Amino acid sequence: MTLKLWGRASSGNVQKALWALDELGLAYGHIEAGGAHGIVNDARYRAMNPNGLVPTLEEDGFVLWESNAILRYLAYAHGGPLALPEAPRARALIDQWLDWQATTFTPAMRDAFLQLVRVAPDKRDAGVIEASRAGSERCAALLDRHLADTAHVAGEHFTIADIAVGLAANRWFQLPLEREERPNIRRWLGTLAQRPAATAVLSLPLT
């Protein structure tokens, strides 16, 4: 079996795949791609991923892109600590939180991230930052209320939903802006941080 992952480690979406691969203890090659690393516009890469985005996973000739699809595939194909429950409703809850991360939480904080991390201070738009901050706070409040009654986002056990939502929440807490304290999210992130496979990605700075 040959596994390769393309994508710069600073990308939150690539971090999902890195965390999942390490949870599974799989041997894989990691090729930094995107941003300053280039590669994503090369013809060979575009043949694998026509979007020119990261991450892209290749396993024995099978190619897959979209970070949450990669999480699902690794859970389906390799099981182990990422094994999905058999009950349809339990699986549906995992899908619910994967979709919420991708369609609601991460988009809400995207502008704040770009403005505060990628834009020079004298060119930042305070209104854009505030709108993103407010939207992200609504998401964080929802997540914190949910985690008051459950150990992990999709139930009592760790799943791939914790990887996706955990990385988004960790990024939110790293942004240099004012926010409400969320004790239940902090408790949950502390639990995730104890997982050896999470250590490398959760400690990466925002770039």
UniProtKB/TrEMBL annotation:
Protein name from the UniProt record: Glutathione S-transferase
GO molecular function: glutathione transferase activity
Homology family: Belongs to the GST superfamily.
The protein's enzyme class: transferase
SUPFAM superfamilies registered for this protein in UniProt: GST C-terminal domain-like, Thioredoxin-like
One Pfam entry name: GST_C_2
Superkingdom as given in the UniProt entry: Bacteria
InterPro entries in alphabetical order: Glutathione-S-Trfase_C-like (IPR010987), Glutathione-S-Trfase_C_sf (IPR036282), Glutathione_S-Trfase (IPR040079), Glutathione_S-Trfase_N (IPR004045), Thioredoxin-like_sf (IPR036249)
EC number: 2.5.1.18
